[in-house]
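Q: Hi! First time doing this. I have a protein sequence and I read that you can turn it into a structure. Is that right? Here it is:
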Amino acid sequence: MGQITRLLTWDNLFLGGVVLAVIYLAIIPVAVMIFGSLQSGLPGTFTPLTVRNYVAAFGEPLLYRSIGNTLVYSVGAGIISFSLGTYLAWLTERTDVRFKGFIYVSVLTAMMIPGVLFTISWILLISPRAGLVNVYLNALFGVGEGLIDPYGMAGMIFVSGIDDFYTPFLFMAAAFRSMDPALEEASTIAGAGTRTTFFRVTLRLMMPAALGVWLLIFIRGLEDFEVPALLGIPVGTYVLSTEIYLTVRRPPSDFNMAATYSMFYLGVAMLGLYLYHRWTRASDSYAVISGKGYQPRVTSLGRWRPFATLSAMGLLAVAVYLPLVVLAWTSFLPWYGPPSAALAKAMTLENYLWLAEDDLVLSSLKNNLIVGFAAAAVVTLFAAVVAWIVIRTRLPGRRLLDGLAFSGTAYPSMVLGLALIWFYLTVPIPIYATLWILIIAYVTKRLPVSVRICSAVLVQVNRELEEASSVAGAGFLRTFTRVVLPLLVPGLFVSFATTLTISFKALSIPILLGHAGTELMPLLIFDLFESGEYPKVAALGVATIVVITFATAAARLASRRVGVTAPG
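A: Yes, that's right. Below is the predicted 3D structure, encoded as structure tokens:
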């Protein structure tokens, strides 16, 4: 009896509860998708297992076309975003280009723009008939309507490619900043020029890390929904994410076939994740960061400096500020149109007044804040506990727990949303069509990133304070709340802030899980755009960007003030 009492302490119950919750979040999506793909009835019903859905899927050219489109889209968009981000990172970290601070501010600004708003901005800019660029080209050169068309595969790749350039920029900037310049200096001393040194030395040393970053972008492209939905569906160009969405939403809904498509989708994503791990492990053999102090080698651009500066400013203008300008302009208009003296006189604040008065907007904002704060708090707590178990303990199965926590990376958001629909329509837990199912979805999706953030901070913290607390008689919960959490504050705030902002940015989760009364801001923006309410969409978009920016800045400020620097 005494042994049972020792096992059933609050510390063990808390740790066990977190572990069970992680297992529940990680395994349920895959298990339910497999079950749903082998069913012939609706979610919530049980029919004999069958492979009829797989036979039908293999016999449909639509599946192969969607898989092909998905790969082309992800590879093409990945090449553009990687090239743009790496070029700007190289200019900023390894050359004497001007306005480096402005480049970093622009990258952070790009991170604040939700993908659905970015795509809508480009539709307003280059749509065939009403896009500002096409209108002005026609007026200036008489080239006719539709010279530039964002719809279809080419437009999807272009918009998605420049939308996500900040991801490779941040990774590659860190890599360029940390690389020991000794080999580059040796190449220069041996008589090699700047171009030869870059291609023969720098590029080769960076190749494994660069391929890892590109694969990460490729995986993110696989699950992208906003761009394919807005630029692909109208012209019949489907990828796997939009195919699953349409299979569920287009009458008659076929949840079984959607589950089957999801298994193919999951397989492609897991293959990409496997390759990513292979490349990141291989990059250890090319380690270029030493323990000695050094300054990164800065290349003098010479007469090319003005051109490099101008090219960087031009790329940022197109990728960041042009979409923001068209959003801001449209938000003050009574109807959408290109800039003109007549429209300038008709500018109004009515769209912003509508934001403060419309019940649906206020309800969506309230829902978003509830879901965002709840998911951010839960996932941050879970991540801190999982990181502590993996790094600080010798418990059997801790590596498996780490793998389960990371498995959410392989679940495309559309697959995760469909899996949760299947599960909560099957089991007697009444959270379908409530905010709870959205909270669970965001916790599952963000757990891998949050665990990595907390782990990165925890490995830098000396365990002496934890050991002293334990020697003084404090249990796990007391030590964790009084010692560990204060030391993890910077990482906790990063995890909290990124999860909160993602709830305002991502459309792929609420597009399937949102219902009347549980709409989030991205879904409301999408619905308003589909209804042709462009000025209202723009005003709502500007307000959303302000909220995201404020939340990120507040979290950053709080982490600086509250953060504790660990000894050792």
